[in-house]
Each structure stands twice: as C-alpha cells, then as structure tokens.
Specification:
It is a single chain. It contains 15 helices and nine strands. The protein is of the alpha/beta class. An eight-stranded parallel beta barrel has the order 2-3-4-5-6-7-8-9, surrounded by six helices. α12 links the parallel β8 (250-253) and β9 (274-277). The protein is globular, with a radius of gyration of 19 Å. The two termini are 16 Å apart. Bound molecules: phosphoenolpyruvate and magnesium ion (MG).
Length: 325
C-alpha cells in the first residue's frame, strides 16, 4: 500500500531497540537530488560527478560545475552532500578526453590516478566544489585511492586550491571534510593507517567486491562469483569499520550492498554510520531497519563470521530476514 511506504520515506531508520543509522542517496544530478529528498534521503552519500562530465560535449568549466554543485546543495538544505571527484576510466568514458585503449581498464589509468596526472582538470573541479561549499554542507571524497601517497597528494592539492581561493578573497568552507572511498582492497587492509589521516570513509562495495574476489563486475558469465556475502568481503568490512571507529572517524557505505535490504542486519551489526543507495531503495531499507533488533543482528554477525562460504552466509541471512520482518 503506497501510503504505508510513503510513511517509511519520512521516518528515520531506527531499529526496534533504538539504534539509528543514517540513510543517504547516490545521485548524479540536481533532479536526482530532488527525487532523493522525496524518497526520504537524509543526505547525499555519493554524488557521482562523472555523470555531469559525461552529459557534456567538452570538459565542463569551473563556472558550470560550480552552478551544478551549488544547486544540489540548495536542494539539500542543511543536509550533507558528499561530492566524489571525477571517477572516469574503467567502463566510464569521456568522448573529449582521449585515454589510450588499455588491456585492463579497471586496473588502469582512471579516477584519482588520472586526476593526479592531469592536475589542471582536478584543480578546476576542486575550485568549483570548494566555492559551492560556501552554500551548504559539502564533503569531498576521492575515488579509487589505492595507497597512502595518492591520498596525501590529492589532499595537498585541496590545500593548494584553498590557498588560491583565499588569495582571491573567495568564500568557502575552511573546515571542509575530506575523505576517501574504500573500494580497493589495499586500502581496506591498511584501513588503520588511513583512518589516522582521513576525515571519513565510504565503502564502495561495487568495486571492492570486484577487486577482492577478482571478478569483473560487468561479466555475466562469472556473475555467480560476484557476491557481497562472500566471507572475504564481510571480514574486510569489519576491518574497515573497526579501524574507522577506533580512530573516531565516520564510515559509510555507498556501494550496491548498502541498498540491499537483506544486507541490513549485517551492516547494522558491523556498525556502519551511514548507508547511501539509489533513491528507489531508500524506503525498503528504512523498512528493513525498522524491523530489526541490533542485539539479534550482532548475534547473527558472530555466527556469520565463523562461516566460510558465501552460500552459507546468504542462506543464514535470508532465514534471519524471514524471521525478523
Ligand atoms: C562502488 O564502487 O561501490 C561505487 C559506489 O562506485 P561506482 O559504482 O561509481 O564505481
Ligand atoms: Mg567504484
């Protein structure tokens, strides 16, 4: 019944025993932001800025980007907006940005690697984001970080751009938070080191599953191997969340797992602070959270951490969900 579902959109996601988790949306445009608010988004956990670049015939300039980011922030009011810097390459191409054909594009010249190599392009985007930060609660997030040097280089370019803007007398949020996607296994493994330096993490399970299990996320022939309930993934998630919290840092999730109602009990038990998903999944996930008891979810996680196959975990989680909601 539509009115019952609409009620879930307006509610916060709170378990039976009072544990709250923040629910955000993954978006690409200002129109998406308006729809996400209607569906009950409490923030934007992932703005995929490459969608803005992909909609243009040539590189969008600073002013154009500034206007888009500013409009999204205006739509979101006092809610926070995590803007991910350009994540191009892999399966996402720009006609006007010639990247030589590669044998393994998902392991190649993409995302933050490309931005660090093409600094003017990166600086233009950071200027637009920082200027928009004067109008709302923006956070900056880097995609595809694989090592601490990359993070430090990208972070220092943000500082450099802040310096430029200061000199020009432009307003921006001096305390803007800067974080990273956790989507490359090397970062998940080294999460404790990263947690000391970043302001926040957001776990990108789409790529984290692909890289950890060595399973192409686009290849249907092997999609039976692509499973976020694989025990290697659950263990990595635990490593990342615990590392973040030990350092007092916020950790969200913006990959497809965050929008899977069946994953909700494990994600609650792991202790994620936020789940960000496509707007259409929000009501289902809020409903799932409202059916759960955190203490039972924690007992489930204990059991799951002893299991060694994705199949066993999936069956266990499915029967748990049937009995709880
Ligand atoms: C991810 O990898 O999980 C993610 C959210 O980013 P994208 O799907 O854009 O690669
Ligand atoms: Mg990704």
């Amino acid at each position: 019944d539509e009115s019952v579902w609409q009620a879930y959109a307006a509610q916060e996601a709170v378990t039976q025993d009072g544990h709250r988790i923040e629910i955000g949306a993954n978006i690409g445009t200002a129109a998406d932001a308006r729809y996400a608010v209607e569906q009950g988004a409490e923030g934007i956990g992932l703005l995929r800025t490459e969608l803005i670049y992909m909609a243009e015939a040539s590189l969008p300039d600073e002013e154009m980007q500034f206007n888009v980011y500013k409009e999204i922030v205006r739509v979101m009011g006092d809610k926070s907006v995590i803007i991910r810097t350009l994540d191009i390459g892999g399966d996402k191409e720009l006609s006007y940005l010639k990247i030589p054909k590669e044998m393994n594009p998902f392991l190649g010249y993409r995302a933050i690697r490309l931005c660090l190599d093409q600094k003017p392009l990166f600086v233009t985007q950071l200027r637009a984001i920082l200027r928009a930060s004067a109008y709302g609660k923006i956070k900056i997030m880097f995609p595809m970080i694989s090592g601490i040097e990359e993070w430090r280089s990208a972070r220092s370019i943000v500082e450099e751009v802040k310096g430029q803007l200061r000199t020009e007398g432009r307003v921006f949020d001096e305390n803007i938070q800067v974080g990273i996607m956790v989507e490359v296994p090397s970062v998940a493994v080294m999460a404790r080191q990263f947690a000391r330096e970043v302001d926040f993490f957001s776990i990108g399970t789409n790529d984290l599953v692909q890289y950890t299990l060595a399973v192409d996320r686009m290849n249907e022939k092997i999609d039976y191997l692509y499973d976020h309930f694989n025990p290697a993934i659950i263990n990595l998630l635990q490593t990342v969340v615990n590392a973040a919290h030990a350092a007092g840092k916020f950790v969200g999730m913006c990959g497809g797992m965050a929008g899977d109602p069946k994953a909700v009990p494990l994600l609650l038990a792991l202790g994620l602070d936020e789940l960000s998903m496509s707007a259409t999944a929000i009501r289902k996930v809020k409903h799932a959270v409202s059916q759960m008891e955190l203490t039972k979810c924690k007992a489930l996680l204990e059991d799951v951490l002893k299991m060694s196959t994705a199949q066993d975990i999936r069956l266990k989680v499915e029967s748990f969900c049937e009995n709880n909601g």
